[in-house]
Specification:
80 residues, four-stranded antiparallel β-sheet, two-stranded antiparallel ribbon
Length: 80
């Protein structure tokens, strides 16, 4: 997942957002590619023109994988 985001055309980094669908919903991660600009990294976001024609398309990934159900239990970062 991360590899696909970072290797898309124009990406020089990634940004990860913690999101929640509803007030009591389960949190999830949104991973977007970024490009470096003069005033700092900017998210790569798909765009359309005034006629609704797609002018740029970028991969944005949502991950619902949660730890500890999906953890590497041998990792030094694992603390259930």
């Amino acid at each position: 997942m991360l590899d696909s985001v970072i290797h898309q055309e124009g990406a020089s980094g990634v940004r990860i957002y913690l999101a929640q669908a509803k007030k009591k919903g389960e949190p999830y991660l949104i991973v977007v590619g970024t490009r470096q600009e003069k005033d700092g990294p900017k998210d790569l976001i798909s765009t359309t023109d005034k006629q609704g024609v797609t002018t740029a398309t970028y991969l944005v990934v949502r991950s619902d994988d949660k730890c500890p159900a999906n953890c590497d239990k041998t990792s030094p970062y694992y603390h259930p």
